Amino acid sequence: MNITIRQIELFLSLMRNPHIGAVAQEHFLTHSAVSMAIKALEQTVGERLFDRISNRLVPNENGKILMECLEPAFEQIRDVETLFKRDRMAGVLRVGASSTFADYILPQVLYAFKTKYPQSQVEVLNFNSEQVVEQVESGEISLGFIEGDYESRSAEFEEIYKEELVVVTADKYLAGSQEYQLSELLDLDWILREQGSGTRQTMWNHLGQSKKDLNIFMELEHMEAIKSVLKNPGTLSCMSPFSFQRELAKGELFPVQLEGIRLKRSLYAVMNRQKYRSNLLNQFVFDVREHLAKMLPQIAGEEE
């Protein structure tokens, strides 16, 4: 078998983006050069790796199986290239992140990482936590960051932080007057994230039977939209402390104290168990963990 590194590189690029023109441009090749490389690879393995449907390339089952085999090996080859240059972190990392991570945690990490490792490229895709796990399971992304606990047969979860969700409102009197039993707040207008989000799931896990009486007035996909709606009287939400620090400092949102309930959760890095953990991946997880440790005090082990 005579598979070349170039064929593997082009094949993996086409599996991620099955458009020959785009892949040719990415690798500074002609359209015909990419086509010839893929045809040569298919001849070597003895199977078609893409279906040709209406002049489009569509990855088939053979291609997906081969990708699972070749992608970890190709990343190891990339690591060999930088084995004696540990400070030269290079490569492309596709990361899926829940909204809390994508909007409030990762931007500064990405800036610092790119400054420190200019030959690295980290692409962040925004999903809710449930979708991040699904993307890791399918191999669509190399790494995920989520909030809350999820089960998976093929993904592993590495806890990188602990936090406590906060019930918030723009009503200063409501927030500051007293500690509330949860039952006293159920009838107010709650503005929540959609089902599948880590924040929504954590809240659900703590509410127990009370959740059936919760007045969910609106469900919104983005936290910035929720914060906008909270300007209306009688509205509440539940969110990560990372997501409303600016509004807290400006006196636009206020925490509501709950009696007897603490909405604790863990934040995780998520990886496929079969995925090779490259130097780039490991370093990025480390940097995210370090950044989190500096942002807000952890609640691990704290008890009132």
Give an overview in words.
Belongs to the LysR transcriptional regulatory family. GO terms for molecular function: DNA-binding transcription factor activity; transcription cis-regulatory region binding. By secondary structure, the chain is an alpha/beta fold. It has three domains: 5-81, Arc Repressor Mutant, subunit A; 91-159 and 268-295, D-Maltodextrin-Binding Protein, domain 2 (3-Layer(aba) Sandwich); 162-265, 3-Layer(aba) Sandwich (D-Maltodextrin-Binding Protein, domain 2). It is 42% helix and 23% strand. The protein has helices at 5-16, 20-26, 31-45, 61-81, 99-116, 129-138, 172-176, 198-207, 223-229, 245-250, 279-295; strands at residues 50-53, 56-59, 91-97, 120-126, 143-147, 155-169, 189-193, 216-220, 235-239, 254-256, 263-272. Strands 3, 4, 5, 6, 7, 8, 9, 10 and 11 form a nine-stranded mixed β-sheet that branches. Strands 1-2 form a two-stranded antiparallel ribbon. Helix 1 (5-16) packs across helix 3, helix 2 packs across helix 3 (31-45) and helix 5 (99-116) crosses helix 11. The protein is elongated and about 75 Å long. Residues 299-304 have low confidence and may be disordered.
Number of domains: 3
As a percent range, the share of strand residues is 15-25%
The structural class is: alpha/beta
The termini sit apart by: 64 Å
Domain HTH lysR-type: 3-60
Organism: Halodesulfovibrio marinisediminis DSM 17456
Family: Belongs to the LysR transcriptional regulatory family.
Keywords: DNA-binding, Transcription, Transcription regulation
